[in-house]
Amino acid sequence: MRSKPIIALILFALAGIVVYFIAPPGRGDLDLDWMVDVALIIFVVAMLIWFSILLTVNRRNRLKPVPRIQDDNSAEALDFQTLSMRYPVSIFEERRIPIEALEQIDLPVDEAVYLAIGGGLGSFAWVDYLRICGATTDQIVVIGPQSTPYENYRWLCRNSQLFDEDRLRSDSGSTPDNIWGWPGYAVREAWQYLIQGQLGRAAAIAWQVFAEPTLAETYTPRSGDVFKSIDLEAARIGWETMLRPGFAYRVRKTDDDRYAVLYAHPGQRPRVMLARYVHIATGYSGMHILPDLRQYRERTGDTYRVVQAYEEHNHIYQQLVDGGGTVLIRGRGIVASQIIQRLYEARDENPDIKILHLMREPQVDKRRMGRAQRLIESHWQLQPFNWPKSAFGGQWQARLAQVEDSERAHFFDMLGGVTTANRRAWRATTNTGLREGWYQMFFGSVMRIEQENERVIVTVGDKTGRECAMFAINYIIDATGLESKLDDDVLLGDLHDQYALDLNRQQRLSVNDAFEIQRMRNGAGRIFAAGIITAGGTYGPVDSFSGLLYAAQRSVDSLTEQGATDLHNLDILHSVIQWVRWCLGVQP
Amino acid sequence: MTPTLAGRWQTRLLLLGTAGVVITLLFGWIFSDFRTPLALLFYALVLGFGWDALYHLLQGFRWDGDWPPLFQLIGCLVEGVFLWILATGGFLRDGLPGISPYVSAARFAVHYAVVWTVTFALLQGPLKVIFPRWRFRGGQWI
What we know:
The complex is a heterodimer. Helices cover 40% and strands 18% of the residues of chain A.
């Protein structure tokens, strides 16, 4: 199978040579044939370059991912209070730790130059960039609870009914495994189809990226492909050798321009890691559950019928297929769309499934920014990605970086906010459901939720607070997303208290343009942050693959400027060399 | 990547100033006339700065603030036709200075198409590798 493209290439090149010799170009001969030949030759050369690049990228796919660290430890992570009762960690109550004092406590102390806390995709992007800029595996340590950078992400995806063959809401060029964004997932997928001889599917993807989003639906990669690509890059940069499984509890400045991080693997003795440059990307602190649903669950203990979309809740689909029923959905984002799609599929097996979508108010007014406006259909706000494309890099990104703080809130409200992907299949499902009546929308706010036998009774009020409807349903799925309050996070809550960190308008970490937490500067020591914990600043889509890559680039570039250990600037030459190494699948 | 106006200008300058010049010199050698192809490239660049401003304006009507490859292709065709008419005297009586009166539409079309195809191909990928910060800066590389 693999020899096919090579044969095709050789034939292609031979055809070019034959054309060249059949119609030999003579100097001064200015007829059109001659020019077409030259154009053809240039075209053939350009195509050869493109194809050989793709062939080398293909070689990369033969890399074997390193087997994962088997973590058999089922112990729960301790909270800090319990930890401090069992182990001598009182020194971490201080804001500045003398380095000698650390030697006297009875805890193992290790050292690194670069330390990433979180171990997810944010850490991965930063470490990948560091490795590509020259840092070695023995200089970098990653502390996090996940065995792969995407473990938590994939778990959330699967619970919210997005499986490996389903497509994420992410751009082709947002490649967590490749800091350059090229070749993107579209090119790689098309190439895979091409070598399998599926020309039609390859051409369809090519057309998609060419004409999206105007004449074709925006291309988005399959989540399984993204995870596989991350596995390969993790193997290439030696992720496993840098990973120390565990939770970070405390970050403290030391008196030698470094930071001491207290961390522990569940069930084991805590350890201390010293580093000069620290990166924090701990992500969301938990799931967001609407207050009325939270109260209901606390009151009744019913987490079977009332679930959060990111919780494991496959039993609902199983029960619905077996016996039918009505599901109430809250939230109007991408997760709600995904859940509706799943329920739509379940209806194939049992048409007696109904969906009731409860929203606080109708969505009819289009959001406007300047001369542009956002698409709305059936009360869904539609947009290819979670931010307009140019907020990732382009017009909106530039504007957002320039506006005053007071104006930024308006930008976030208008450009960010809750939207779902503009997919033909989803829009068709919504419209069919509305027409056939198995999908209904209702506007109002929840006044009461009560448990009654096998059902949940929801009483809804109108704008004036008067009861206006009552529904007896089987299940409630809360698709309002994840929680990212700073104070709920063990590490960040403490950091905020101890060092009086500045927060932005959204009450998240305030970072400068290099994604550095400036208050945490310690001589030459620096702490950076990335991801949702920095949302609300000068860059909008921080909580996206692209945003994590951007944050990594900005922070590592600032480290390079500062002359951090063994880093070199990613100039044209280094960039090209490193990219070729990426293609070949050899370590940076 | 979606461009800002400064990004459009810088990227156009970069692509036409490098790949554009190399390809044009090649065609100059084939045509035994360097002056006309180079002049055409120069006009494509200068007029392009104006076209970019127009595209930028139109882009403002798009919620995503993007400029899909399809639009680039349409832009290429419009720009090409306009340049040809202007250069050969469709608008002015004598055409633009530096353009040989014997230049043929076929030659122009092949030259223009090759320059566009190669720069388009560079734009879709290789440029991101050469300038890793380019895509996050709205197309600015300076």
